[in-house]
């Protein structure tokens, strides 16, 4: 049991390291992502090792395969984050027609700002929306007791807002104005 827990902790640590450097700070370890966010896996492993964080290709493959959110994509000898970048990348995702409703998990302390301004990408390129309440609940729970907002994505799309869907099923749009949001009654 302790060995499995240690392995899980190591997997999370490698996953967080990959997220930080493939989504936000590649330059911190001397990496340059291509315009679509890809980097050679061997270059990533070497750069990480040169900066004091060693992991193997097998560990990387395990993180990619085991990540419940499928945060990373591998294409041959390259890897990239599926979405969530704060650095400039073009994931090349075609516009997609969203379902009638999508969901966003947040916490109560953000509700006043969301009511006033809607959902904004903050330090990311796009607002991230979930296809179901369960996923939105997990997302919101990372910052406290989750509050789930319903997004009238069908109407947004008909009104000209563009949506994309990432390889791991996260819906992306530039922003969600307040008029397309439905707040829970209790808040």
UniProtKB/TrEMBL annotation:
| Molecular function terms, GO-annotated | transferase activity
The UniProt entry's sequence similarity note says: Belongs to the KptA/TPT1 family.
This chain's function reads: Removes the 2'-phosphate from RNA via an intermediate in which the phosphate is ADP-ribosylated by NAD followed by a presumed transesterification to release the RNA and generate ADP-ribose 1''-2''-cyclic phosphate (APPR>P). May function as an ADP-ribosylase.
Give the InterPro entries listed for this entry: Ptrans_KptA/Tpt1, RNA_2'-PTrans_C, RNA_2'-PTrans_KptA, RNA_2'-PTrans_N
Top EC group: transferase
The superkingdom of the source organism is Bacteria
* Known EC number: 2.7.1.-
The lineage is:
Bacteria, Bacillati, Actinomycetota, Actinomycetes, Kitasatosporales
NAD as a keyword? yes
- State the UniProt keywords alphabetically: NAD, Transferase
Q: Quote the HAMAP family the UniProt record gives.
A: KptA
Indicate what this protein is called per its UniProt record.
Answer: Probable RNA 2'-phosphotransferase
Q: Which Pfam families match?
A: PTS_2-RNA
């Amino acid at each position: 049991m302790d060995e499995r827990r240690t392995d899980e902790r190591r997997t999370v640590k490698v996953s967080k390291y990959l997220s930080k450097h493939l989504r936000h700070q590649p330059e911190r370890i001397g990496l340059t992502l291509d315009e679509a966010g890809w980097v050679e896996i061997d270059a990533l492993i070497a750069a990480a090792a040169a900066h004091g964080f060693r992991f193997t290709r097998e560990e990387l493959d395990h993180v990619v395969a085991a990540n419940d959110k499928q945060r990373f994509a591998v294409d041959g000898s390259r890897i990239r984050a599926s979405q969530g970048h704060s650095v400039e990348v073009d994931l090349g995702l075609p516009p997609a027609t969203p379902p009638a409703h999508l969901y966003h998990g947040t916490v109560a302390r953000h509700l006043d700002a969301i009511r006033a301004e809607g959902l904004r990408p903050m330090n990311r390129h796009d607002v991230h929306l979930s296809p179901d309440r369960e996923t939105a609940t997990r997302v919101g729970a990372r910052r406290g007791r989750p509050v789930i907002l319903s997004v009238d994505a069908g109407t947004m799309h008909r009104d000209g807002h563009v949506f994309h869907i990432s390889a791991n099923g996260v819906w992306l749009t530039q922003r969600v104005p307040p008029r397309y949001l439905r707040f829970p009654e209790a808040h």
